[in-house]
Amino acid sequence: MDYSALYPEIILALFAIAIPAVGMVMKDNKYLATVALAGVGLSMVAVAMHFISGNGAVVFDTGLLVLDDFSALFMMIFLSVAFVVILASIKFIDGEKHGSEYYSLILLATVGMLLVASATDLFVLYIGIEVTSISSYALVAFRKKDIKGTEAATKYFIFGGVSSAFTLFGISLVYGITGTTSFAEIGTKIATLTEFQEVIWVALVMVIVGFGFKVAMVPFHSWAPDVYEGAPTTITAMLAAGSKKMGLVAMFKFFLIAMLAIKADWEIVVAVLAIITMTVGNLAALNQTSIKRMLAYSSIAQAGYILIAVAVGTEFALTGGIFHIMTHAFMKGGAFIVVATLATVAVGEKITEYKGLAKRSNFMAFSMTVLLFSLAGIPPLAGFASKMLLFSAPISGAVAGSEWLIWLSVAGIINSAISLYYYARVVKYMYVDELEEGAPSDKLKLPKSMMAAVAICVVAIVVMGVYPDIFIQFCRDAAQAFFA
Amino acid sequence: MLENIPILSLLLLFPLIGAVVTFFLGKNPKMAKISALVFSAIPLVLSLLMLTEYVQTAGGYQFEESFTWIDALGIQYSLGVDGISVPMVFLSTLLVFLAVIFSWDTEHRTHQYMALLLVLELGVLGVFMSLDYFLFYIFWEVVLIPMYFLISIWGGPRRSYAAIKFFIYTHIASLVMLLGIFALYFEAYSYNGYYSFSMVAINAVSPLFGATFQIVVFGALFFGFAVKMPMFPFHTWLPDAHVEAPTAGSVLLAALLLKMGAYGIIRIAFPALPDGAHEWQWIMVIMAILSIVYGALMCLAQKDLKKMVAYSSISHMGLVLLGFATFTEIGIAAGVFQMFAHGLITAVLFMMCGVMQHKTGTRNIPRLGGLAAKMPYAATFMMIGFMASLGLPGMVGFVAEFSIFTSTYDAFGWLLLIPVISVAITAAYYIWAMQRVLFGPLTKEVDTEHLHDLYWFEALPLAVISGFIVLFGMFPALMMDYIRPAVGAVVGILGGI
User: Fold this and answer.
1) Burial status of residue A451 (CB atoms within 10 A of its CB: 0-12, 13-18, 19 or more)
2) Are residues B471 and B400 in contact, defined by beta-carbon separation less than 8 angstroms?
3) Which of A420, A421, A434, A474 to mutate to test the interface with B (most CBs of B within 10 A)?
4) Cβ contact, residue pair B72, A413, below 8 Å
5) C-alpha neighbours within 13 Å on the C-beta side of residue A29
6) Chain B positions in Cβ-Cβ contact with residue A414 (cut-off 8 Å)
7) Total domain count, chain B
8) What is the mean pLDDT of residues B353-382?
9) Which residues of A touch B178 (CB under 8 A)?
10) Full-model pTM
């Protein structure tokens, strides 16, 4: 059997198993992080081989998994997130116990994401989601003594478990009706289905609820701010930049391949949910006092934007959706890592504690400004390029005849404008406002490895913003492979 | 030799380098100022070079540069200028250079201030030179960021509110405009068969688009531009932003940023969607007249000198739109000339507001009085500014206003009477303000003992701009010769006379 489609997952899983063993010998977390980084790097090489060799799609075992342009691109995104998160974690969990479990679980969570990226079968997809979810539950509770963290983990676990149950129920109904778990075959069966129309509706609702929890879609979002706030911040970065995107990939596959034939039935529902999600996320973010909660709500809003791609469902829209997932991974991941970095030097999570930050660390203030403005969609940063692509997709649909789609764009831009307020507020605190009375004013001494992680994100955002061409090409190839 | 210099790219490059260099000279404010001066002087020289090299009779876009940038979406880095952009480019480089000089006494975070002025110059020049919708939009948005910081760091007491209001209000408008641009982009694809954001490629087919499409998309574009100009009833961000902005910020906001809105109408909305423009003609006329009259009336009621000048901007930009809405060559050319004239005049006015605030500590008109005796030079420049703004013959404002009114009469007949009333109101508020601030008994409300007349760095920019106000007032053809042929092309597309 040809295992080459599975190499990235296999490499990563082997390293995940090896890390606890290494941890027995070397107690220092630093070495474990290095091993984990090596694993991610090797896995990246395996994915890169796909692009270099140009072999086209490699199918594993008659269609459980496929390594094509789509899955390879998402693997790259997920692996990059893992890389940056591990890099930032070196100092963040320096000297804490259970370092080997921490890194091992990060790698396992990433394995799950890779599986979802390459799954062409509902059950593989489900297994991927579960691998990631279960690893993340433990990671959120990594600091056992931290009350907020354990509360967050409990909440996450309960919500996650219930949502998995919904998903599984929906999947089982789909299997019962169509007799297959392969996306492509479900797609063809659904197109010619004459019976069980109502049951398909039930299945759709179940799956929307289940995936809705995973991507924190309103009204299934209430866990996200609490979990994002309570989790160790590096893990928050991974949840927002990685595992949430995994949920979106799952939605792409379920709706745009398996359920594409009956798109007319669900597109309005997804469109309305997208608009509600972005609006609620942005409005709730407006008056947050904790920067992590603010970013969490902004993440919800961004998921709403990406859902536009599902509702429009064309190749062009999917290109935009993929590109936005890519840029969002770096902007949101980067922003959370900035928060994590500052936390190591006693700058807390209250937004007001960022007042006058530019005087204490120009690098951090500048990086955060770039990341936040990119999230707001200000050119020439990456967030603008991807948002532009995403918001233009409904217009292309509207020009082509489905006029109602235009409201998705309108909602998107109104929301963008609202979001500018809370992003700009943080920038204002950092650059415009003076330090608070009695607050320390010394220059910050920041850990180098975390600065490197932040720098990677900032550079990625600027490069993807100024020269998006090659990235858009990748996303377009991915979208083409997806619909092929 | 000269033909081979990518003059437009250099015009963008030097402010960019200048901004970076200036920003990193933070430890040495003096050096930061000199660096900003040098890097704003180079674009000025380049734009003078462009003025001399530009062939007025040739028409079309000149100094064109074009490189593929984002191939996947048909986006090009494409620059070019015609007779409509040339005056704006010259105005931008001149005023940024003079604004740097005028801000010579800035002490608070000098290097950042100067760097932001240069970023602003980059954005504004980019808007005036882009020949690609995408590039145009990027520069359009880039302008917002420096202005946001200029207001929120160096602004007055309510700067936070004013800065965020400016940012969000104009950002919404830009986004609506962006939707319009997308619609053009996709619709043009169905005609051209290839995706392109190029203005030339899209505008070649867009006049053929269906009527409904044109009306809707013109509305979206016009909304984006009308907020920026700003036209009544979308003007409310302007008084706040102006009152709170630092002087150089106000100067550039009024003289350049407002022009971006007007420029967008003439560069994008009209040529791209002529049928839409015809459908919207009366709405434009009504908005223009309302802005003219409303702005002038609001001026009468203002106690704050700067707020008065801000409202006068609304009134005078209304004239620009009125000129455009005639769809005649004279009217549109006069509108473009009014953009140029208003840029010069309003710069003097806002600089004088800054001077008054600086010297007396207040801009409250009733608290001032008799200052001409104490500050003769300042009083002179203030009078020049006021006279030019109320349209005194021999100064640049007169030519523009007169031609706009003539063409309004040609196009709409006696409707002219309504906007003409504003001339009387304008004269009234300026002369009344002048009386109260400069003449009469010396005020006792402010400390007049230690009043210092203009410093060199204040007098020099004022003198230069005043010189141009008179020069172009006496010889409007110096600019009109650039403007007329380019406007002729737009009118040709509009199907007017």
Assistant:
1) buried
2) no
3) A420
4) no
5) 18
6) 172, 175
7) 1
8) 85
9) 388, 391, 413
10) 0.89
Contact between A380 and B138 using a beta-carbon 8 Å cutoff: yes
Beta strand ranges found along A95-235 (DSSP E): none
pLDDT digits (tens, 9 = 90+) for A102-117: 999 999 999 999 999 9
CB A1 within 8 A of CB A61: yes
* CA gap A337, A400 in Å, rounded: 42
A394-409 per-position pLDDT tens digit: 988 888 878 888 889 9
Interface of B with A (CB under 8 A): 69-73, 137-138, 141-142, 144-145, 148-149, 152-153, 160, 163-164, 167-168, 171-172, 175-176, 178-179, 182-183, 185-187, 190
In a domain, B129, yes or no: no
Give A441 to chain B, closest Cα distance, Å. 17
Range of weakest confidence among A107-116, A128-137, B347-356, B439-448: B439-448
Which stretches of chain A drop beneath a pLDDT of 50?
none
Residues in B closer than 8 angstroms to A395, CB to CB, are: 179, 182-183, 186
Using alpha carbons, list the distances in angstroms from residue B381 to A18, A176, B344, B384, B471. 79, 85, 13, 5, 15
A101 closest CA partner among A8, A12, A36, A10:
A36
Q: Flag if A389 and B71 touch (Cβ within 8 Å).
A: no
Record the tokens describing residue B494, joined without a space: 């509009």
Q: Is residue B388 within 8 Å of residue B396, measured between CB atoms?
A: yes
* B139 belongs to a structural domain: no
C-beta atoms surrounding B160 within 10 Å: 16
Alpha carbons within 13 A on the beta-carbon side of A241? 32
* Cross-chain CB nearest to B72 (options A414, A417, A469): A469
Our CA-based measurement puts residue B160 at a distance from the nearest CA of chain A, in whole angstroms, of: 9
Residue B457 maps to a domain = yes
Q: Which residues in chain B touch residue A416, judged by CB atoms under 8 angstroms apart?
A: 171, 175
Q: What residues does each domain of chain A span?
A: 4-483
Domain that holds residue B418: 281-491
pLDDT tens per residue across span A131-146: 999 999 999 998 888 8
Q: Do B70 and A472 touch (CB under 8 A)?
A: yes
Chain A residue nearest residue B70, CA to CA? A469
pLDDT reported for residue B70: 84
Residue B496 has pLDDT above 60, yes or no: no
CB B357 within 8 Å of CB B363: yes
Interface confidence, given as ipTM, is 0.83
Q: Do B186 and A416 touch (CB under 8 A)?
A: no
Helix (H, G, I), strand (E, B) or coil at A119: strand
Predicted confidence (pLDDT) per residue in A233-262, tens digit: 999 999 999 889 999 999 999 999 988 888
Whether residue A379 and residue B137 make contact (CB cut-off 8 A), yes or no, is yes
B293 lies in some domain? yes
Is B314 in contact with B232 (CB distance < 8 Å)? Answer: yes
Residue numbers in B near A380 (CB within 8 A) = 138, 142
Using the beta-carbon criterion (under 8 Å), do A373 and B145 form an inter-chain contact? yes
Confidence tier at B436 by pLDDT (50, 70, 90): confident
Instruction: State yes or no: cis peptide before A380, omega within 30 of 0.
Output: yes
**Enclosing H/E stretch for B213:** helix B211-228
Q: What is the pLDDT of residues B273-302, one digit of tens each?
A: 988 898 899 999 999 999 999 999 999 988
Q: Which residues of A touch B167 (CB under 8 A)?
A: 420, 424
The single residue listed with the structure tokens 């063409």 is B407
CB contact under 8 A, B73 and A472: yes
The pLDDT of residue B1 is 47
H runs (alpha helix) in B302-365: 305-325, 329-360
More confident residue, B72 or B341: B341
